Each structure stands twice: as C-alpha cells, then as structure tokens.
Automatic annotation (TrEMBL):
It is found in: Cell membrane. Residues 178-231 form the HAMP domain. One of its GO terms (cellular component) is plasma membrane. Keywords: Kinase, Membrane, Phosphoprotein, Transferase, Transmembrane, Transmembrane helix, Two-component regulatory system. This is histidine kinase. Its main location: membrane. It comes from Streptosporangium subroseum. Residues 239-451 form the Histidine kinase domain. InterPro entries: HAMP_dom, HATPase_C_sf, HATPase_dom, His_kinase_dom, HisK_dim/P_dom, HisK_dim/P_sf, Sig_transdc_His_kin-like_C, TCS_sensor_his_kinase. SUPFAM superfamilies: ATPase domain of HSP90 chaperone/DNA topoisomerase II/histidine kinase, HAMP domain-like, Homodimeric domain of signal transducing histidine kinase. It catalyses: ATP + protein L-histidine = ADP + protein N-phospho-L-histidine.
Amino acid sequence: MPIRIRLLLAYLLATILLAAGGEMVFERQLQTGLIASMDAALESRAEEVTQIVSENGALDFQDEPERIGPSRATFTQVFTPGGALAVASESIGGRPLLTPAELETARRAPGHLTRNLNGEPLRLLTQPVARSSGVWVVLVGGSLEPATAALARVRQDLAVGATGLALLGAAGVWLLAGTALRPVERMRRTASDMHVRDPAARLDVPRTRDEIAALALTFNDLLARLQSSLWRQRRFVAEAGHELRSPLAVLQAELELATRPGRSRAELVLAVAGAAEETRRLTRLADNLLLLAQNDEDAPLTRLQRLPLAPVVHAAANRARRPGIEFRVDVPAGLTADLDPDRLRQALDNLLDNAQRAAPAGSEIVVRAFTENDTVIIEVTDSGPGFPEHFLPAAFERFRRADTARTRDSSGAGLGLAIVKAVAEAHGGHAEAANRPAGGAAVRIVLPLAASSGSASPAAQTG
C-alpha cells in the first residue's frame, strides 16, 4: 500500500478516535451541566413549596392554588404522613410518582430521582417536611425532554463539524503527503533508469537539507561504493586473466617442445623442469588470487596460534635461497606471537621473492624480527635501487609494479605486496614500505603481540 494512502488512513483513524473521544467528554459534561441546572431550579421550587407546607396551622391547599400549583417548568406533589397524595399538579394527573418504599426513603432525607412517565424522562426532587402531625414529603420535578433535545442537537452538530473537519484535514494530508513524497518518486524514477556501470549515474540531491536529501546522499554513496567494487572486480578479473595467460603459454610451449620427436633425455628433463617451474608459478599465483578474493568477501583468512616466530622466518628464508644472494636472518629464539603460520609463510614468500628479484648479485637480504611497544615487527631489507617515490603511496595496491629499474626481471604479477597487506591486516596489524637512507628497500609486517578479539576469525577462535 502506498505511503500516501497509509498516511491518509492513519490520519482518518486518529481523527475519528479523537472526535469520538472529544464528543463523549463534551456530551458528558454538557449533560452533567444541564442536570445540575435543572436540580438547582427544582431546589428553588422545592423551597417555595416546603415553606408553605411547613407553616403551622391547618393546611388547606385549595386556598393556595397559585402557590402550590405548577410553575412553567416544574410540577408538584405533596404527600401526607400517611402516604396519601394531598395535592398534585394537573399536568401529571393524580397518579403518585413515588412508590411506598421511595416515599419511606424520602421521609428520612432529601434525594433526587430520574423517572420515565409515558416515555418522557423526568427529574424529581424529594424534600421531607416535619409538622406536628408527622413528616410530609414534598416532590417537585421537571421534564428532561428539553435537555435531551439539546444534547441531540449538539451531538448532531458535532458529528457534522467533525466530518467536515476530517474531510478538510484528509484533503490537506493527501496534498501534503504528495508534496513531501514527490522528491522520493523522482528519485525512484531516476534510480530505475540508472545503470550501475555508468560512473556518472547519481541522484539529484534536493537543497532542502532534510531526510530526503540525506536519503539521496546515502544512495549516491552506496552507488559510488558499488561502482568502485564493480570496477575493482572487473579489473581484478582482467588482470588475473592476463597474469595467468603468460605462465600458461610458457607451460604449453614447454610441453609441446617435450613432445616433439627426436628430443634427447637432457632436453626432455630441461623441458619438464621448465614446465614444473611454470606450474609452481601458476600454483602460487592461484593461491594469491584466492587469498585476495577471500579478503574481498571478508572471509576468515587466519587461524591464530601462539607460536615462536623464528622457525617460520627461517623456513621462509631457506625456501627463498638462490645462488648469488646471501640471506641473513636475525630473530630472537624466544620471540612468540599470535599468528597463522601458513598465511605468514605466504606473506614472507612474496616479500623475499620481491627482495631477491630487486637485489643485485652478491648482495645481502636481511630478515629480522623484533618487538616495539606492543607489536612484533618483521622486516625484510635489500640492497637494490629501492622503490620509486611515486610508487610508494600505491605500493600495496593489486597489480601495481615498480619500474623495471627496481627489479632484474619483470616476471612478477604485482600481487606480492597486496598479499602482504592482506595477511598483516588479517592478523590485526598492518604493512609498511619505505626506502632505506643507505639504499635499498625495507618492507615491514607489523603484528600485535597478542591478537585482539576482533582480529581473530571465528575459525581461529574455535581452532
């Protein structure tokens, strides 16, 4: 159901409830006021009749027709101590209006009664009068028909007024809701015509600085984030396809050469070794791509354990050793941290591979770990040309490569530092890259000494 109609129905329901409640309260107060006014008139009339009845001497009502007879708005009955009707107004005839039980009650104290006579509502007042012959009862009353008619007219007028007010208010709510929701409808039509691939697709933000404008801003921000995510995904797929194509082409060429007739055993061994190297490169690239994809989906990357750091670092350095490059590892034997050894190995393998490709022949790569404040820092330094200054701000972005002067070959996929950053952040830390004053590059993985509850994945906490 449209919001406009819901608002209109809510207004009408609230108006009906308020009008009904207000009418009931007003009618009750008006009825109470009319009855109180009649009671006051009856009490005044009762005082006049009581004064006549209470006079000493014999009572002869026929001598007092004007004083005892009915007034314009009231009627009178007077009862003797024996319960007989001594006098009654002609407008109600000679029928007593009080039963014996009511008459007995009236002799003890004044009281008010409401009675119907031939379908007409009456208001009665009884007043006891003590004489030497006993207690007489004076009854005066009046018709409630004028008050009832007045209440009916007021009720009708209130119903007409409330209906008119409700209709007028409903028209106002309909117009006001339409005016307030018109920008939302424009935004809906604009959004339905948008395409998320259009980088310029945005909603017009009203200048009202209200909730509608805030909604448009929020939608535009969401659209920008979706477009950015889509752009990163498309770029990731395109770059991944490009990076996979090169080793696959080399692998295909190696296998085709190996299958040619007349190849010697040495040539076959060399071809198979080349294919195995490209297969390892493909496996490593696939692992890196999988980790980055999991990181994009906020999937758990680590299973943290309290482990010594030295074995992990030494094992990574041993895997990276190649002829012509010296490795020096400096890690205190007792240094421990909350870490995932497999993920840290993946990050260190990428760091050492980058350093080895940048380091000149005969130089040294240093891997050291130390504590600083409440963190553990793993640092890899080389003696190469360092990072270009313009590259440092984007060093940890995916598929970013330094200039060819930085490395001795260009076989890297540009994912190494992105992997390092993802692994560091999965541990609750961060990664840093800088150039050394003496020359060469330095890359740090900064990890907390103890993992916070927020940095460990559910799998880590249960594993």
